[in-house]
Every structure is written in C-alpha cells, then in structure tokens.
Design a protein that fits this description.
alpha/beta, 4-stranded antiparallel sheet, 13 helices
C-alpha cells in the first residue's frame, strides 16, 4: 500500500470512529485521540463485577518482549496501535513469565500455579483434568468460550482445551507473496492474519452473546512480516521488530472491526505473552534456554470497556502471569470454585484501583516475588537439570547447570538496568537468602500428584519441529 493511500486510510478510519460515537463536530484535527469508548475510572472498574454484559478478549502474542514495544517506551514505533490504545488503558511495567518455554509458561498461567506445582515441565507432560482452567470458569458463568491457537504446545492433546466449546488451530488461508517468514527454522503454514479472520467471523456471528475469546498469535515467534512492516533493518534483531510491527497491524484489523460493532464498550481486552527472546545479550539467542530478563520480562496490557478518565495508568510493582486469571475473575465478580491447594497467583485488583487513582500501590505488593522455572532437557523427555530464577524487588537470582556445574548469578536492576553484571560475589548474604527461597520453590511437588504424560505421535513431533523446536 502506497504511503499516501495508507495515510488516507488512517485518517478515514479515525473519522469513522469519531462519527460512530458522535464526535465528528467536536474533533477535527487528525492528531486528536479517537473517542473509542466512554470515560471511566476506579468507580467504573469496581462496577465491572455488577455488569452482566462484559466480554473477555485474551490475546497472547507468543515470544513478545515488553522492552521491544513502543507501548513500553521502545524508541522504534513497533506497536503504534497498542500505543494509541494504551493512552487510555492499563500497563504493567514489571510483568514476569513463569518459564521461557511455551508449554510450561502457558500451563502455569492457565492454572495460576508455578511450573513445579502444576507439574507441566517436560515435553510429554499434560495438564490433568483435575485442573480448573479459565475457559471452564467462564463457561460455568454463562460465557461462550472459543480458543484459536497456532502453537502446537497448547494443543488440546496437552490438556489446554478444557472448558472451550470450540478450540482449534485455524486452517491457513491463501498467503500474499509479500509475506515473509524470516526465521529459517520455521515451516509452519499460515500466519496470524488467518487467525484474526477466524476471530472476526466468530465476533460477527456471536457478538450479541457474552463471550470469552482466546487468541494465541505466533508471527513474532516466526519472525513473520510483510513489506509495509519491514521498517527497521535486516538483522535478526531488526526482523524481530518488523514482526512485532506486522502483528500490531494485524491487531489493528481486529480492533477496527470491534470498533465498528461497538464491542469496545463491553469487552475487557487483555494482552500478554508467554516468554521473551534473547539477542546475544549474554551470547545466547532465542528462548527456552535460560531465564534472564530478556526471556521472562513480558508485557501485560489491559483495556477496560471504557477509557480511563485520567489517561493511561501504570502498575509498577512486580506482577506475574499466574496473577492474570485470579485478577480477571475478581474484576468481573465471577463465581470460582475454591481450589484444593492455594494458588501461587493473586488478584491484582487493589493495585489496579490504586494505579487508576494515581495512588501508591498497596504495601503487600512491594516485596512480591516472581518465580520462573525451566527444565534444561524439556525437549528430550525424562527429567534433567533445571534452571530457575527468583525476582524480588530489583533483585534477580538465576541458578542453572552448565556442563555439570551449578552456576549462580545475582543481578541488581537498580544498578544495572539490563542485568548483565553478576553481583553474587559482592553480595553473598543476599545471594544466600535468594538461593534459599528459590530452592524451596523449585522442589515443591505438583498439587495433583505425579504429572500426567502422553506419548507424542510423529505428526505432533513434526508440527512442533516446524515451529523451530528441537524435540527428540
């Protein structure tokens, strides 16, 4: 699309959005913020629990680092759509994934339990039927539940389909020649545009019913982009940024349609990731190998069914993927069975209300810890050495096994924002305290007993290999 045509399309879209909401006469400048949905604040957040019309759209952008998003202050304009919406929404600045490998991370997020406590840490582990997953909670509360995914690690054969009326991998649609998959290990057919089109068709048919829609996007993982998104260069790192821009454009297509149908007025939108990506900050590339900040610090954005009247709000305390669903349940006032064992995740409702009012966060959140875990042999079967990390305040402890030797590192984000300088020798007491707590979390047993496993078929293994994963 030529730049002039693209500009006209953008201005036309803004004009249409304003007119739909009666704002054509009041706003005439092209830089004015579009009035997508009503104003609201802490009172409206608290009132969500009494509403019976709020939908939930949950968007998981696989392999997305928070610090590569312009919505988080990145200097490149990688996420203009999310940045624009973010002016009215909620951003979590220190959000932690519980693993750097999709299956372990997603199992932890869905269950609200750390990987060691839910038992999904190896390639053949599955989420047991005894686990209570969000789709089951939403279904029990009268929501239509639909999940669309493109990553085989969250396939229903691993237990991730529990509670969904429909849970499927969309079939590839005809591909434009301009679309490029720059990750040389990837051969998975289709792209996120397919999934977005399926999502739009679902909304077209079911938008008058209360729904929970889960979208698991994969194009950032696959370094997919097109000519319009090829803005930032040709290095491996540049192409990653191109793919984020491409994904942001795909989300714009979905959001445009939701605006036309008035769904921004009654839909809670949540966007996060399962893990990040390394670009040789410590000599490593990719993910599922380590648990440093570049592979575990991810975004969490929440857009309410109204614009925050005081503009964007920020939660600056430590939050985690295990906290997402306890928080959503609490915000919407959903009835949730009491778990047999306490969850690791907690509701962030009080922090959200404080952020919306520009108040200090609750005292209890100041020292909240975040734990991440990764089996170093997750793709080979059986148990092996473990890497785990503990974040508390500005401190991060990382423990891994290298050639049979245990290696420990300690980082202080206040002194070293990129966490590249190991301070374990300078601070032995803090190292010992962090080690003690991390070791205790690493040996906790699964709440449902021994992990359930299943043998993967050769077709499933090939599908996972097509994503670039090395599985034996």
């Amino acid at each position: 699309m030529a730049p002039m045509i693209r500009m006209v399309r953008v201005f036309a879209l803004v004009f249409v959005m304003l007119c739909l909401l009666g704002g054509c006469e009041a706003t005439t400048t092209p830089n004015a913020d579009p009035q997508l949905w009503p104003l609201g604040g802490a009172e409206e957040i608290e009132a969500l629990a009494a509403r019976d019309d709020v939908n939930v759209l949950f968007i998981l952008v696989d392999t997305l680092r928070a610090d590569r998003m312009s919505a988080y202050g990145y200097e490149r304009e990688t996420t203009p759509t999310l940045e624009r919406l973010g002016r009215f929404g909620l951003r979590f600045d220190r959000h932690l994934a519980q693993s750097s490998w999709t299956k372990a991370s997603m199992a932890s997020m869905w269950t609200g339990l750390y990987p060691t406590r839910n038992g999904v840490i190896e390639f053949d582990d599955i989420i047991p039927d005894d686990a209570l997953l969000p789709a089951e909670v939403f279904a029990a509360n009268g929501f239509r539940t639909v999940g669309l995914y493109r990553n085989g690690w969250v396939a229903p054969t691993f237990g991730f389909g529990q509670g969904f009326e429909s849970y499927s991998r969309p079939s590839p649609l005809p591909r434009r020649r301009a679309v490029t998959e720059a990750n040389p290990t990837v051969s998975l057919a289709g792209h996120d545009g397919d999934l977005i089109q399926f999502a739009i068709e679902f909304l077209r048919a079911e938008r008058d019913q209360r729904f929970f829609l889960y979208l698991h996007l994969m194009d950032v993982h696959e370094y997919t982009f097109d000519e319009e998104a090829a803005l930032f260069g040709t290095s491996y790192s540049d192409i990653y940024d191109n793919s984020i821009r491409w994904t942001d454009d795909a989300l714009a297509t979905l959001f445009d349609q939701m605006i036309e149908w008035g769904l921004f007025r009654n839909t809670l939108i949540v966007l996060t990731s399962d893990h990040g990506e390394a670009f040789r900050e410590r000599g490593e590339e990719g993910h599922a190998r380590s648990l440093y900040r570049e592979t575990t610090e991810i975004p969490l954005l929440v857009f309410f069914p109204f614009r925050l009247e005081r503009g964007s709000a920020v939660v600056k305390s430590r939050t985690r993927n295990v906290d997402i669903w306890p928080t959503i349940y609490d915000l919407l006032g959903l009835e949730v069975p009491t778990p047999v064992e306490p969850l690791d995740g907690v509701s962030l409702r009080d922090e959200i209300l404080a952020a919306a009012q520009r108040l200090p966060p609750p005292h209890a959140s100041e020292e909240r810890e975040g734990f991440a875990h990764l089996s170093q042999h997750w793709g080979r079967g059986g148990s092996g050495d473990r890497t785990y990390a503990l974040a508390r305040g500005a401190t991060r402890y990382v423990r891994k096994v290298v050639q049979g030797d245990v290696v420990e590192e300690l980082f202080d984000g206040r002194l070293d924002g990129l966490e590249l300088v190991d301070r374990s020798a300078e601070e032995p007491e803090r190292l010992a305290a962090m080690r003690e707590r991390a070791d205790a979390l690493a040996v906790e047993a699964p709440v449902w007993g021994a992990p359930e496993t299943r043998e993967l078929t050769e077709l499933e293994l090939n599908q996972l290999r097509a994503l670039g994963y090395k599985v034996d």
